[in-house]
Structures are given as structure tokens and as C-alpha cells.
Automatic annotation (TrEMBL):
Keyword Transmembrane attributed: no
Protein known as: Helix-turn-helix transcriptional regulator
UniProt domain HTH hxlR-type: residue ranges: 12-110
UniProt superkingdom: Bacteria
Alphabetic keyword roster: DNA-binding, Transcription, Transcription regulation
Lineage: Bacteria, Pseudomonadati, Bacteroidota, Chitinophagia, Chitinophagales
The keyword Metal-binding is assigned to this record: no
Organism: Chitinophaga nivalis
Membrane-crossing residue ranges in chain numbering: none
Amino acid sequence: MYEKKIPENLECGISIAIKVLGGKWKAWIIDCINNGVLRPSEIHRRIDSASPRVINMQLKELEDYGIIGKTIYPGLPLKVEYYLTEVGKSILPVINAMDKWGNEKREFIVPGIEAMQPEHQY
């Protein structure tokens, strides 16, 4: 079993927030669920640049942290829907602030992101 050499600092609020939102797609997943995109297949379609495996892993982490819950409906095929818990709803102001900041600073940040992208050769 893998053991981290440096233990996580769970006394720091920023460390905890990054643990919850640090995955590349987690904030987007939470936003999707908040906006009524509840089924895993819908989330996969909405975030089509991420592999379903990665989305499923991040959904599981968010569920383990108590940010989202899952309802499983009986029947075939099995139907699963996600929802935000009260703790999950409490993180929405953080996600909204991230969205606002990203939109306001787009013109400054996007050129740097694009410059870091490898050039495609065809």
C-alpha cells in the first residue's frame, strides 16, 4: 500500500478546500449538479473533454467527502442521480467566485494558458 512521505496538513482550511476542489473537473461537476445535470451520462456529455473514468473517480471522491450524495433507483437499467448535500451547497459561493474571477481575468490568463499548449503538427 502506498504511503505519502509528507502527511497532508488537514489543519489548514486552504488545504482542505484544495483537497475537495483540487481535481481538474470537481468544481465543474459540482456546478453541473447544481444546474440540474444529475445523471452520470449527462455529466459525461457536459464535460466531454474528460474521460468517463476520471469523471467517475471525481464523483466518488466528492461523494466520499460528503459534497454530493447519490440516489439509486431500482430497475433495469439502473438509474443513478447525484445531488448536492448541505455541505455541497455551502461550497457554491466559492465556485461562483472562481467563475466570476475567471471571467473577469480571462483576457489576462488565457494568453498564458494558450502559450503553454503544445503546438499541433498536422
